[in-house]
Amino acid sequence: KMDRRITVPPARDELSELADTFNHMLERLEIGFKQQQRFVSDASHELRTPVTVILGYSDLLSRWGRSDKEVLDEGISSIRSEAEDMQQLIEKLLFLARADQKRQVLHKERIELSELVEDVMRKMKLVTKTHSVDLLQNDEGVIYADQVTMRQMMRIFLENSVKYTPQGGHITARARRLPDGGHIMLELADDGIGIAKEDQQRVFERFYRVDASRTKADGGVSGTGLGLSIASWICEQHGIEISMESALGKGTKMLLKIPLAGEKPPAERKD
Ligand code: ADP
């Protein structure tokens, strides 16, 4: 492989500084390019599975669908469910693509966090029949944030809690003002399967799933491994620090340290 690095005689300080900067940029570009290639190949791989299933059922339908009512029903519902999974996957890929290109729009405004938390939890409770969902504490605090993505971020954590907690489990949320006066700690917790120490960092990587072999077909959950990378991007955009407490078989707690907005609205920023 050709080496495009620039070398200069050691005496020429400014020039060597320039060369360092250039070499650093080149490295970053190469890493970025590799990541992009990997993203495309992982995404294609993930899309291949539902397409294969859809094609399989289409064959089945065209052969037996007219004569066998059972085949017809199962074929239609399977195709529908695979297509829905595919649609969700595509939405997530598009979100990350926009984020990467800095085209994902955030409309930040001053909002009352407790109202947002209350609303997300109320809706979560409404749609969750298999687990209990409770809001244990909801301290007030004004934050400067984008409503849409903040809700999306909370839903990702909560839906994971439902997915990775056996039926009958407990999902809780707690928002408490920290003594530093500048933050609210939002804790989203479950008493589900938990995440092993060695996976706790990796789950935020794109496409990473702890048990990638389990799919809907064998009674597992279907996942994309993209939810947490989207959630962590949203947190990053809002200056929210994420930490995790989790133990296998015990459950998972996500701790989100959310900065409160100052007294005055932040100056309009054009970035
Ligand atoms: P997925 O679509 O697979 O849920 P995520 O990026 O949201 O993708 O999560 C990545 C992986 O992290 C999941 O596949 C799962 O193994 C693990 N995980 C996430 N949330 C939890 C949780 N609350 N409890 C246990 N495991 C979790």
What does this molecule look like?
The protein is an alpha+beta fold and 271 residues long. It is 47% helix and 18% strand. The protein contains five helices and seven strands, in the order ααβαββαββαββ. The protein has helices at 13-64, 69-100, 113-127, 147-163, 227-237, and strands at 108-112, 132-138, 142-146, 170-177, 183-190, 241-247, 251-259. Helix 2 (69-100) packs parallel to helix 5. The mean pLDDT is 92. It binds adenosine-5'-diphosphate (ADP). The site of adenosine-5'-diphosphate has 22 residues, from helix 4 and helix 5.
Task: Please tally the β strands and state the result.
Answer: 7
Bound ligand species: adenosine-5'-diphosphate
Instruction: Tell me, briefly, the overall form.
Output: globular
* Number of H/I helices: 5
As a percent range, the share of strand residues is 15-25%
